[in-house]
Structures are given as C-alpha cells and as structure tokens.
Amino acid sequence: YKNLRWVDEKLLLRSIKENLCYVARNSTDEESIEVSMTLPDQGVLTLGKERHMVTEALFKPAVLGTQARGIVQTLESAIFNPTNVDRELLQILCSNIAISGGSTLFKGFSERLRW
Fold first, then answer.
1. Residues 109 and 23 sit within 8 Å (Cβ to Cβ)
2. Distance of alpha carbon 72 from alpha carbon 70, whole angstroms
3. Looking at beta carbons, which pairs linking 42-51 to residues 24 or more positions away fall under 8 Å?
4. Over the chain, what is the mean pLDDT?
5. For a 10 Å CB count at each end of the chain, is N or C smaller?
6. Alpha-carbon gap, residue 52 to 60, rounded angstroms
7. Distance separating alpha carbons of residues 36 and 24, to the nearest angstrom
8. Cα distance between the two ends of the chain
C-alpha cells in the first residue's frame, strides 16, 4: 500500500485486524483458510494462518520468542495470588471478569478466555 498517509495506514491496519483476524480456540489444530482483501492501491493482501497466529501471542507470548505471561496466566495471578481470599469471593471474581476494547474485540477472544 504505497503512498498512504500515516492515518490512512492506521485505519487500513485496523480494518485488517477487525475484518480478517480472529482468536482460534486451539491454534495448533486450526485450519488455515486463506482470505484476501483489496488494498487502497488495488494490491491484494492474502492471509492464511496469520489470521489467527497474530492473536496467539496474547495467549502464548512464546510464539514471539518471549517468556512473558499470557493473558490467562496474568488473570490467574491477579485473581488467585492472594492466598487468603475466601473461596466464595474467588468464584464471584471469576464470574465477573469484564473485557472491553482493543484486542478483546477479536472474534473468538471471549470464547478462548473462557476455555
């Protein structure tokens, strides 16, 4: 996509993210269905496994070569770290997790988080 301004590039990337990418329930078993998108310069962008692998880093940062914790481990550590928390309170905390905005809007995000 040549000759786009920075703002246009950002909007294009957002469109790719929101329309083509998704969170797979299990990325190792996921079929790589290719989809294409026509770019503003009439070029064509085709994505296969990238559609779900780009989001896999949220759950398994090791795919990027880092040892950081994924979102599930981060949530677990935030909720379960205080060892003196009442079991009933833990159930309440776990049943009242709210997700909103940004990368949580990927198709399949909330389902994967529950899984």
1. yes
2. 6
3. 43/1, 45/16, 47/16, 47/20, 47/21, 50/21, 51/20, 51/21, 51/22
4. 86
5. C
6. 12
7. 19
8. 37
The residues with which 35 forms a beta bridge, in sequence order, are 47
Rg of the chain, C-alpha, whole Å: 18
Tell me the two tokens of residue 104.
């949580």
Joined tokens for residue 71? 């979102």
Tell me which range, 24-28, 45-49, 74-78, 110-114, is most confidently predicted by mean pLDDT: 45-49
Place of tokens 């198709």: 107
pLDDT at 26: 86
Residue labelled with tokens 């997790």: 97
Q: What is the DSSP string of 69-107?
A: --HHHHHHHHHH--TT--HHHHHHHHHT----SGGGGSB
Q: 């399949």: which residue's tokens?
A: 108
Tokens (6 digits) for 113: 């988080």
Instruction: Evaluate if pTM is beyond 0.85.
Output: no
